[in-house]
Structure formats: C-alpha cells, structure tokens
C-alpha cells in the first residue's frame, strides 16, 4: 500500500457507504465516498491524486450503471482497479449483464476481513505492513506488525 492510495467508495445506502469508508481508512488508505455515479465522477475529477480503486455497488440510482462508471473513471485514472459489491450472487450479476465474468466481485453481506482482502487483492497489496483484526464490536481495525 502506498501512502497515496485512494479508494472511491460508491453506494447509495449511507450506512453501508460509511461503514466501508471507515474500514478503508482504518486500513491506511485514503477514502472518498459518493452516493451515486454522478457524485463519484465529480469527486474523481476534483481529487488531487490518482484513484487506485473503485469499490462500487452494482445497483445505484440514476442513469449511470456501475460498469459505465468504472469505464468513465478508468479514462480519468488509467491505473484504476474495480471491485463490484452486490447483494446479488456474481453469477446473476454476470447473467444480467451488470458486470463482466472476470470482474472482481464481493457479495453482500461480507465481513470487514473479506472487504480488506478484496481491496488488497485488487491493489496487489499483500498486507505486509498491516493486519486487520476483528474488534469485539465486529469492526475491523488495523494492527501494525513488527517494530513501530
């Protein structure tokens, strides 16, 4: 993980969006959050650095689909990785043409550890500096390994 790694979280459910944003920041990534594709595009144009990961819900309000959002953001941020999140099983999302068969996909509900694993896999981060452990409340928190 580089200090400048920015993750853009897009979900129309405020509680889910905020929970994901907190987990992302607790793992040491910078996080931007948006409620829909238009807000995500505005945030991506305004950000001061490259966005490395789009973490987006498959179902969003408005006329811009998650896959179209990913295509548009890739034009602005060529090294962008994408993880799609949905309550639908991946097979259904693929069958309905919502995501490609090779898309990175995280099915809801998921644990904080599963979210972190998906983020690290998408970014090619093996997590050598940070390990996520569960707190008693079920929220992820970063734990540094080795000397501080």
Model description:
This protein has 148 residues and is an alpha/beta fold. The chain has one domain: Rossmann fold (3-Layer(aba) Sandwich), CATH 3.40.50.2300. It contains 5 helices and 7 strands, in the order βαβαβαβαβαββ. The chain has helices spanning 14-26, 37-46, 66-76, 90-95, 112-123, and strands spanning 6-10, 30-34, 51-57, 81-86, 104-107, 130-134, 140-144. The strands form 2 sheets. It has a 5-stranded parallel β-sheet with strand order 2-1-3-4-5, with helices on both faces. β3 (51-57), α3 (66-76) and β4 form a beta-alpha-beta unit. The chain is globular, with a radius of gyration of 15 Å. 32% of the residues are buried.
Give a summary of the structure in a few sentences.
The chain is an alpha/beta fold.
Computed CA radius of gyration, to the nearest angstrom = 15 Å
Strand content: 25-35%
How would you sum up the major sheet?
Answer: 5 strands, parallel
What topology, given as strand order, has the largest sheet? Answer: 2-1-3-4-5
The proportion of residues forming helix, as a percent range, comes to 25-40%
CATH class: Alpha Beta
- Tally of discrete structural domains: 1
Distance between the termini: 17 Å
What CATH architecture would you give? 3-Layer(aba) Sandwich
- Which structural class do the helices and strands define? alpha/beta
SSE sequence, one letter per element: EHEHEHEHEHEE
Pfam family, one: Response_reg
Domain Response regulatory: 6-123
Region (Disordered): 127-148
GO biological process, one term: phosphorelay signal transduction system
């Amino acid at each position: 993980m580089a200090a400048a790694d920015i993750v853009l979280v897009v979900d129309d459910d405020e509680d889910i969006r905020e929970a994901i944003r907190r987990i992302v920041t607790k793992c040491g990534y910078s996080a931007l959050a948006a409620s829909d594709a238009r807000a995500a595009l505005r945030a991506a144009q305004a950000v001061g650095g490259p966005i490395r990961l789009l973490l987006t819900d498959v179902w969003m309000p408005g006329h811009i689909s998650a896959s179209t959002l990913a295509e548009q953001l890739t034009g602005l941020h060529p090294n962008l990785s994408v993880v799609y999140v949905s309550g639908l099983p991946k097979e259904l999302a693929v069958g309905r043409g919502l995501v490609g068969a090779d898309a990175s996909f995280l099915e809801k509900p998921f644990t904080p550890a599963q979210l972190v694993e998906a983020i690290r896999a998408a970014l090619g981060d093996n997590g050598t500096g940070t390990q996520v452990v569960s707190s008693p409340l079920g929220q992820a928190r970063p734990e540094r390994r080795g000397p501080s």
